[in-house]
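Lay summary. Proteins are chains of building blocks that fold into shapes, and those shapes determine what they do. In this project we predict the shape from the chain. Here is one chain we studied, written as its sequence of building blocks.
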Amino acid sequence: MTLIESESTTLSTMRRILLVVFIAGSAATIIELLFLGHFEDTRQVIPVFLLVAGLCELGFYGVVRKPKSLKIFQVTMVLFFISGVLGIIYHYQGNQEFALEGNPSLSSRELIERIVKGGAPILGPCMMIQFGFLGLAFTYRHPHLTSSVNAQSAS
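And here is the predicted shape, written in a compact code that computers can read:
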């Protein structure tokens, strides 16, 4: 086995591992969010929708194996990242509002402590950011994407 073949095999194996972690983590997160009742308003439905969409897009890619399906998946991974950042903000604001309702005269330190320990986990939405990075890592220099770029530049 040459060095190039070895590197190609390693990258293919790493891509499969990233895919398995993404699929298992997304499925587990969907189940958790559903059990938590994370669908009371539109903002809470967004991560569930994106997780389902990401899994469906991977399924679609598995069937068609076209670069366009991977590009759509990449766009969704960017939306994962954005939803994670917004989720952190929403969780922070919700915990802050709840803490101030209970005691509007909290000191800054006490307020921060209550926000961090509040009912909505501040860092919970980081899972969406992590899944977004996993998905983008899966598509990074993916053979179906690079071969389409090479074919376009050759013509």
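What the prediction tells us: Residues 13-143 form one domain.
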